[in-house]
Specification:
Number of strands: 9
Structural class: alpha/beta
Number of helices: 16
Mean pLDDT: 97
Shape: globular
Radius of gyration: 19 Å
Strand order of the largest sheet: 4-5-6-7-8-9
Strand content: 5-15%
Order of helices and strands: EHHHHEHEEHEHEHHHEHHHEHEHH
Length: 347
């Protein structure tokens, strides 16, 4: 087993790291009892991770901690700093106005925790995307008043995606603030989850990537980046497979968009490939494997690939030591582990 290099010549900034305030965990537990929302994915995911298994208990404890245990874990794994965001589905299973009220409280709590260890943590602001004006206002407050470095969008909200223009005010705010939105996975929406559930494919094995990649493409095809050309979206897990389908997406969308086959699919100002190269950043969260990391650096850009661990959902002590041996120069490793994160998040 490789040993962690204590002096690699760069800091290691992990950029997709989850947190859940105790209040949110309690609300999840209440919802599991009430069963009042129509989202089978929520009950599948949190039905297990609110349970009594050792895995569930360890995850629950680590999610709620932003102090001693988390910092100890970071030190033992070789992580210098985390970019922390509200875990999925965050506030997005609640009524829109309630979601905004919760986001305000949780952002305040996250900012307070960060202030205790500002050299170890920075944060992304939560918002309630279905409350369009409230979402934009809270993202702005989070960035300008609390020092957040962007926003967290935990994908669909009870099956609603954000490709409809009526939800775009928060993206307009992000572009104006010059901060990115992290498009984080959720379990497949109620419309698509059934084929995933029977064999446990609804979460990280496959469902997360299918659902979040779909959301990203819906935003792209809807013309979001033609409206907001400077907007930046972050995708984890090596881009939810989209970079590996870059050529096919580009070719087929080019034909579909000019065929008049679909009422809502019109030509974009640029080829689909260009948006995936110029309006998206990518992290390797949950993928500690050289081939896909190097592929994205080669095909997208070395400037758009960042390190992430996906703590505490996927906490592997050996990961950093393995990735320290990526086939990169020292300068390239510094860019991957530290430089791109500092530039994107203005750390």
């Amino acid at each position: 087993m490789n040993e962690i290099n204590p002096n690699p010549g760069y800091k290691r900034i992990a950029t997709e790291e989850a947190w859940a305030p105790t209040e949110l965990m309690n609300l999840f537990h209440k919802e599991l009892e009430r069963k009042s929302i129509k989202d089978p994915g929520f009950y599948s995911l949190w039905g297990f991770f609110s349970g009594n298994s050792q895995r569930a208990q360890d995850l629950s404890r680590r999610l709620q901690d932003l102090n001693d245990e988390r910092i100890k874990d970071m030190d033992s794994a070789g992580i210098d700093m985390q970019v922390v965001a509200l875990t999925s589905p965050g506030v997005q299973i609640f009524e829109p106005e309630m979601g905004t009220s919760l986001a305000i409280r949780f952002n305040d709590e996250l900012a307070d925790q960060i202030s205790k260890n500002p050299d170890r943590f920075v944060g992304l602001a939560a918002f309630s995307p279905m409350d369009t004006k409230g979402a934009a206002k809270e993202l702005e407050r989070g960035v300008t008043k609390l020092g957040m470095k962007g926003g967290i969008l935990n994908s669909h909200s009870l099956g609603t995606y954000m490709d409809d223009e009526k939800y775009w005010e928060v993206f307009e705010a992000a572009e104006a603030l010059d901060v990115p939105i992290y498009l984080h996975p959720n379990t497949p929406s109620p419309q698509m989850i059934e084929p995933f559930l029977k064999l446990g494919l609804d979460a990280a094995v496959y469902g997360f990537g299918c659902e979040t990649g779909l959301h990203a493409l819906r935003l792209l095809v809807a013309g979001l980046f033609d409206r907001f050309p400077k907007l930046q979206i972050i995708l984890g897990h090596c881009g939810e497979s989209l970079p590996f389908n870059l050529s096919r997406i580009n070719y087929m969308h080019g034909h579909v968009s000019t065929s008049n086959r679909y009422e809502n699919v019109k030509p974009l100002k640029r080829p689909a490939m260009d948006y995936l190269k110029e309006n998206f950043y990518y992290t390797n969260s949950g993928v500690a494997w050289a081939p896909p990391i190097m592929f994205i650096r080669d095909v997208i850009s070395p400037d758009r690939m960042l390190y992430a661990m996906d703590y505490p959902w996927q906490f592997i002590h050996s990961e950093v030591a393995e990735l320290d041996n990526l086939p990169m120069t020292g300068a390239e490793k510094k860019q991957f582990f530290e430089g791109n994160a500092r530039k994107l998040f203005k750390i």
